What does this fold into?
Amino acid sequence: MEEGKRNSAHGVFAHLERLEAEAREIAVKEEKMKQEEEKQARLKARVRELSLQRDMLLAKVRLQKKRLREKRAMSDPAKSSARAVLEWKIKNIKGMLQISYLTGISGKQTKQGVCFCISTAYESTYLDSYYVHLLVKPEVQIYQHSVPTFIPLEEIAKKYLQTDIGRFLSVLSDHLNAYAGRKYQADQLQEHFSDQIEGTVQRNSLCNLLVFNYKVSSKSKTFPFNVRLLYGDLCCSLPTEVNVSCTPDAPASLAEMAAAHSDLFRRVALHKAFRSFSSAEESVDGAP
Amino acid sequence: MDNSICQVYEDEIQSLEEEIKLLTEKYEDSQQESTFFSDEEILMAIKSFQRESERRESLSDLIAQLESLETDLSFLKKFTGIQFTSHFKKTVEKTTNRTVRKHRLSGNCYSLSFQLEFQLLEMQNKENVSAVVTDLGIIMESGEDADMSKFVSSTEEHGNLLRFFRSLSSYAEWYEHRRCTFLHFKGKYPDIVTLPEGLLGDYIILRNPKHSGFELMIVWKIHIDEEGRTTPVLDLLTKVPQQVLEQNMATIENAPACFRSMLLLFGIETALENLIKVVGLEK
It folds into this structure.
């Protein structure tokens, strides 16, 4: 009797478990279906959104093609609207004026006189631009400028401003470009080779005197070389005087290397010289 | 089954995204395209404006704006000698702080014409915008000049566009100066001065019509090194009949050196003038 009760109770529990499992399965299926439906709805909405975006773009492109055909039709002056021709000419000249800074000297006439913009660059990189606003009446004189104080602007102006503005701008541009070149080299050195330099590069505002200690090998714990670079020609971004010496505790074998470095610094930009040190070290390391 | 429906949607999304990408590129490209009009068309347009009286006010503003811009352009030409004649740009890549544009630029500097193609990468930093020139290609009219070819190659290699313009300006100025000098002396002494290669050649010949067989050739080269430094180099070559050569050997041999000294003392124009006067003497 007892056993029969136990069996029937067991049967009920088993049945309940089965029902629970089925309910769970149904719930999971429903959840899965719900997720599938949501995913489908999401994807459907995305398709709608993208279709709309595509149709808008397609319309824009078609409209543009139509405009382009009209523009091309303008090459026949009889067909072209006078306004459109002028607007295109204006747009074209504006584009040319916008890139005129690439030539190094650009400018614009103002109510007071003329405002020149002198661009500087080092090789392919355009750097800072400087402005000189000149008054032309009663005589040519500098009204405003953004040229750094250490550039001998007054001296250049005294020499050329009254007689030849073109020459004045050219000489000023030479000074500014040489300064920009020296500064750029020192900045590049500090930025890319800081692990080979002890502390920071000491330099004056004109960047025509640089002093620093450096090492060639990344393995070296000390900085055996001391260099002093003097740029005697202020219109040049290569040094006129180079002094590379070894620190007192450096091995004698480095003296020869110092002489080679001295020659390299005279001929090659500072950061490029250091790049060649690095590649030389790599080739030595890579040798079998 | 449901999976396959989702897959269909996903495939459609992918194809739409690709289509949108292509259309966006197409749209941006055609947006960059610029049309160039000849001066003749502009003049015709301006004439037709005067007939459109009802819109005269806004059109006259456009004319004024165009004239002002053209003044700015010719003002720049006055100081650099450089004049752009056509410009085309196309955006290759654009993000929040960097833009890459491809430029095609034609122009001339005095009598020399050039065509440039390059990419300009403009980066917006905290303080300012810096630009880097890449893929620079230069076509020069005076391509057969070996010096100029070397300079152009060096410029292309380093992407040094600013140096190109500065040096071209100086080189073309000398080129123009030589042309004007040759023209001046040809006009002033037509019987003595001959230009075998015309005004754009690099030499002139001086001969006295009354003394046949005696000729002086003045060669005026304009050198440009790889760094873009421009230097005029003048030389004197003599062609003298044999009997005259025997009588005045020392004088004729010293002539080129004397000419170089004269150049240093008096400058190009005066040295040439003196030489022409000597050649033109009766005796």
